[in-house]
C-alpha cells in the first residue's frame, strides 16, 4: 500500500465477501432453475438441488466461521447496518441527482459504508436469516411440516429471492460499471482505495482514520 492509499477492507472481510458472493451466485442460478417452470428440465436427477444445498451450507458456514474468528469486526458491521441517521436520509434524497447527474455537492459525508451499501448490507443480513430459516424448513422438515407451512416457506423464500436478486444486480452495476464508483472494485479486490476517493466517497470515515493516525 502506497502513502497515497488507505486500507478500506481487511483480508478476512474480502475473503468472506467473495465466498459469500460466489455462493450467492450459485444459489441464485440453481434457484432460478426451480423458480422458472421452463427451466425445470435442468433439475432432472436433482443435481441442481444438490448443488443448491452444498452452496447453501457454504453460505451459512462462511459467516459463522468469520464471526468466530472476528467477533469484534462483525459486531461493528452489525451496528453499522442498523445505525441510521439524518445523513442517511440526506443521502437518499441526494442519491438520484448524484447517480444520474453526477451532482456531488448535495451528498452528505459518508461513513466507511455509504447509505446504499448499508442498505444492501442490511438486506444481506435480514434476508440471509430468512433464507436460512425457510430453506432449513423446506430441506429438513419436508415430510414433517404441514403442507400449509411448507407453502408459506416456499412463498417467503421466493419473495426473498426476487428482492435480493434485484438488489444484487444493482450492487454489481454500481460496484463495477457506474462511472462514479471508479474504485469500488479495487476496494474489494485489493482492500485499498486512494485517499482522494476516500475523501470524496467516505469523508466521515476518512476524517476519523486520519485523526487516529495523527
List keywords for this structure.
214 residues; mainly alpha; Fumarate Reductase Cytochrome B subunit; two-stranded antiparallel sheet; 9 helices; 73% helix
Give your account of this protein's structure.
- The chain has 214 residues and is mainly alpha-helical.
- It has a single domain (5-10, 67-213), classed as Transmembrane di-heme cytochromes, Chain C (Fumarate Reductase Cytochrome B subunit).
- It is 73% helix and 3% strand.
- The chain is built from 9 helices and 2 strands, in the order βαααααααβαα.
- It has helices spanning 11-35, 47-69, 71-81, 86-101, 115-140, 147-177, 184-190, 195-201, 203-213, and strands spanning 5-7, 192-194.
- It has a two-stranded antiparallel ribbon.
- Helix 1 runs antiparallel to helix 2 (47-69), helix 2 (47-69) packs across helix 3 (71-81) and helix 8 (195-201) crosses helix 9 (203-213).
- It is elongated, with a radius of gyration of 20 Å.
- The relative contact order is 0.12.
How would a crystallographer describe the biggest sheet? 2 strands, antiparallel
Distance between the termini: 18 Å
Fraction of residues in helix: over 70%
Sequence of secondary-structure elements: EHHHHHHHEHH
Hey, roughly how much beta strand do the residues contain? under 5%
Shape, per Cα inertia axes: elongated
Mean pLDDT: 89
Q: The CATH topology is what?
A: Fumarate Reductase Cytochrome B subunit
Total domain units: 1
Q: Can you tell me the CATH class?
A: Mainly Alpha
Overall CATH architecture: Up-down Bundle
Strand order of the largest sheet: 1-2
Cα-atom Rg, whole angstroms?
20 Å
CATH superfamily: Transmembrane di-heme cytochromes, Chain C
Low-confidence stretches: none
Tell how many strands the DSSP assignment holds: 2
Number of helices: 9
Secondary structure class reads: mainly alpha
Amino acid at each position: 500500500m502506497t502513502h497515497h492509499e488507505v486500507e478500506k477492507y481487511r483480508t478476512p472481510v474480502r475473503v468472506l465477501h467473495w465466498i459469500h458472493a460466489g455462493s450467492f451466485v450459485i444459489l441464485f442460478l440453481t434457484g432460478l432453475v426451480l423458480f422458472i417452470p421452463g427451466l425445470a428440465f435442468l433439475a432432472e436427477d436433482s443435481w441442481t438441488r444438490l448443488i443448491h444445498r452444498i452452496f447453501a451450507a457454504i453460505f451459512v458456514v462462511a459467516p459463522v466461521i468469520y464471526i468466530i474468528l472476528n467477533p469484534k469486526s462483525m459486531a461493528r458491521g452489525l451496528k453499522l447496518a442498523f445505525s441510521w441517521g439524518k445523513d442517511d436520509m440526506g443521502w437518499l434524497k441526494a442519491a438520484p441527482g448524484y447517480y444520474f447527474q453526477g451532482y456531488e455537492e448535495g451528498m452528505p459525508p459518508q461513513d466507511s459504508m455509504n447509505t446504499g451499501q448499508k442498505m444492501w448490507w442490511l438486506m444481506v443480513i435480514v434476508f440471509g436469516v430468512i433464507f436460512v430459516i425457510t430453506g432449513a424448513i423446506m430441506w429438513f422438515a419436508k415430510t414433517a411440516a404441514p403442507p400449509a407451512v411448507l407453502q408459506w416457506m416456499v412463498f417467503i423464500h421466493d419473495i426473498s429471492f426476487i428482492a435480493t436478486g434485484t438488489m444484487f444486480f444493482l450492487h454489481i452495476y454500481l460496484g463495477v460499471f457506474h462511472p462514479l464508483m471508479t474504485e469500488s472494485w479495487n476496494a474489494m479486490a485489493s482492500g485499498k482505495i486512494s485517499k482522494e476517493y476516500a475523501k470524496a466517497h467516505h469523508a466521515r470515515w476518512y476524517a476519523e482514520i486520519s485523526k487516529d493516525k495523527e
